[in-house]
Amino acid sequence: MAHHRCFVVPPYLLSAIADSSHNSDALRESARRALQHQTGYAEQRQLRLQLVEAEANTVAHPQHTEGVVPLYLLQSIADSPHNSAEHREAAHHTLGTEQQHIGESSKPKLPHKLHIHRAIYDAQHSMNEASLPGEVCRVEGQQAVKDDSVNEAYENTGKVLDFYAKLFHWNSYDNKNAPVKSSVHFGKHYENAFWDSEARQMVYGDGHDFLTNFTGAVDVIGHELTHAVTEHTSRLAYVGQAGALNESVSDVFGIMIKQLVQNEKAEDADWLIGEDCICPGVKGVALRSMKAPGTAYNDPRFGKDPQPAHMRDYRVTTVDNGGVHLYSGIPNKAFQLTAVGLGGYSWEKAGKIWWKTVTGGLIGPNCNFLRFADATVNVAEKEFGDEAATIVRNAWKQVGVVRKEHA
C-alpha cells in the first residue's frame, strides 16, 4: 500500500524559498530538497484515503454515496410538527435507509479507557526513511532527557492526546489507544514535519534559516495528528474542496489545542498556525492566519502569503491537489468567525459543532464547502438552538460560502 504524508509547511512556501534570488544557494538547495521529498505525496495521500474508504465500506457496510437530499434535511422534515404525518413518516423511512447505508463505522465508537503511549526516536539526521524510526530516546513514563527536541515532541504529543480524550472522548488517533511514535532530527536542515500514516508516526526536521522548532509548536503537532483522526472518522478526500476541508479541520483542532494550552478565549486569541515555527528576522508571524488568511507573512525571500479568505478568490486548479493548502483558509476563517461569534472558549461550542460534523455521519469523503457549511448549521441548531445556527450561517456567508440564490 502506498505511503501518504501530510506536511505542515505547504508546498507553495517551500517552492517560493527555492525560487527566490534573495536567498543563498545553500538555503535554496535546502528548500529544494524538502520540496522534492514532499512532491508527489499528496497524490499518494489521496490514494491512501481512497483505499481506507474502500476497506471500510467492504468490511463494515455497503457502499455509501451522498444523496441529493442531505440527512439533516430529512431529519428536519421528519421532526417538524408543521408537516403531515404522512410526510413525516416518509422522511423517517428514507432517513432510516440512508443511515443504514452509512453504517456504524462512520460514527465515533465508544471510547476505550485512556492509556497514552508515546515513544520518541532520534533519526540522527538521516533522510533514509527505511531507517525510521531511528534510535529510541524516550518512551512513556520515562523522565526528560538532554535533547530538547525529544522532550518537546514527548510533551506536546501528550497535550494533543489529552485534548482529544478529555474534550471529545476520543483516545489516540484511532479511538483505540494506538501508540504514537515520533522521530526527531530527520534530515539535515529539513524544513518540515509530517505524519506518515503507513508508519503511524510523526517525523520532524530541525529546520533552517526560515522555519524551525516544529516539535515546540503544539498546534502543528495537533494539526498533523488530526489528519490521522480524520482518516478514522469522516475520511475527507485529499483533493479539491474536500481536501481543503481536510486541511482546515486539522487547523481547526490544532488551533483549539493551542488555545487550550494558552488558556485563551476565542475573542482573545491570535488565531495563528505555526507562529512558533517562524525564525527571528522573517517578515511574518506564522505559517497561516485563520483570522486573516493571506496576511501570515510577506517577505521578499519567499513572497506573500497567498491564502484567500473569500470564495470570490477561489479558482479551480490542479496545483497542490486542487489547492488543498491554499483554499483551507476559507473554512478556517468561517470557524474563527463562528468561535468568536458564539463566545467563550473555541472548543465549548464551535469545536463541538465541528467535531459532530466530522464524526456524526453528516458528511462524506467528497464533501464540498457548501455541504459542510450546511451540516455545521444543522448541528449548531440541534446542539445550541436557532441563535447559534444563525451565527454559524452568517460566518459562512462572510466567506462567501452560500447558495447562489442567497448570495
UniProtKB/TrEMBL annotation:
Q: Where is this region: Disordered?
A: 82-108
Instruction: Name the Gene Ontology molecular function terms of this record.
Output: metal ion binding; metalloendopeptidase activity
Instruction: Please report the stretch or stretches of sequence annotated as the Peptidase M4 C-terminal domain.
Output: 234-401
Lineage top rank: taxon: Eukaryota
- Keywords for this protein: Hydrolase, Metal-binding, Metalloprotease, Protease, Zinc
Keyword Transmembrane assigned? no
Kindly give the InterPro entries that the UniProt entry links to this protein: Metalloprotease_M4, Peptidase_M4, Peptidase_M4/M1_CTD_sf, Peptidase_M4_C_domain, Peptidase_M4_domain
Pfam families attached to this UniProt entry: Peptidase_M4, Peptidase_M4_C
Q: Share an example GO biological-process annotation for this protein.
A: proteolysis
Determine if Transmembrane helix is one of this entry's keywords.
Answer: no
Q: Where is the Peptidase M4 domain?
A: 118-231
Please name the PANTHER family in this protein's record. NEUTRAL METALLOPROTEINASE (PTHR43579:SF1), PTHR43579
> Member of which family?
Belongs to the peptidase M4 family.
Write down what this protein is called: Metalloprotease
